[in-house]
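Is this the right way to post structure tokens for a design question? Let me know if I should format differently. Anyway, here goes:
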């Protein structure tokens, strides 16, 4: 039995256990990273980054960025060989903000966003130019830059700047811009083409061989 606390602490440190670290180098081609183990700040060799990967017919790759706070687990009890098992948020790199809601992802939601800035950057901000994807109970929304698509329970809304196109149970509605058709015809079956003042189906012309004017009706 070790009565001396110093010897007890030294013995505990020799037992392999999970450790925290900060990514200091990245090799995307092999999905490997180098990490500075904390609190000693000792640099490791190249380690497999298994925090967010999937191998097989479906493959998923998301290499850690430099400055990312990670959790490492020893391989088969070997205190010198680790694998990255998870990535952690910290005071520098926190959860992303959804462009759709203006908030972080809530329980029961999934948010994926690029353009958040590298964890190693001081005073990092989130750019609105990066692509993003947000799954909520109400539906799915995604976009990039000034483009946004919102798929709800009963409608699909596509926004491009100030222009909006909505497809729902009441039909297709476009606001903020006109419609131009090039290289094809516009066919209306069982309906009418209307402006604020006139109906194309109901308007009448003057007598035969006479001068026709604007639609009437």
């Amino acid at each position: 039995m070790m009565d001396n606390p110093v010897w007890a602490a030294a013995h505990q440190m020799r037992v392999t256990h999970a450790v925290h670290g900060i990514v200091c180098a990245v090799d995307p081609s092999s999905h490997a990273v180098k990490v500075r183990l904390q609190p000693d700040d000792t640099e490791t060799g190249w380690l497999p980054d298994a925090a967010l990967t999937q191998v097989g017919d479906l493959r998923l790759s998301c290499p850690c960025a430099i400055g990312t706070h990670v959790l490492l687990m020893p391989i088969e009890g070997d205190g010198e060989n680790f694998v990255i098992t998870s990535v952690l948020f910290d005071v520098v790199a926190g959860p992303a903000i959804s462009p759709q809601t203006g908030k972080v992802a809530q329980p029961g939601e999934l948010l994926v966003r690029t353009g958040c800035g590298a964890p190693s950057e001081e005073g990092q901000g989130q750019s609105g130019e990066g692509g993003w994807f947000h799954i909520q109970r109400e539906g799915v929304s995604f976009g990039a830059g000034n483009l946004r698509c919102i798929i709800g329970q009963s409608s699909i809304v596509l926004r491009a700047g100030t222009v909006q196109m909505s497809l729902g149970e009441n039909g297709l509605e476009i606001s903020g811009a006109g419609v131009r058709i090039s290289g094809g015809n516009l066919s209306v079956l069982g309906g009418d083409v209307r402006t604020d003042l006139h109906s194309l189906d109901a308007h009448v012309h003057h007598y035969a061989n006479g001068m026709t004017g604007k639609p009437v009706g």
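Format looks fine. Someone answered above. Worth noting: Residues 110-175 form one domain. The mean pLDDT is 83.
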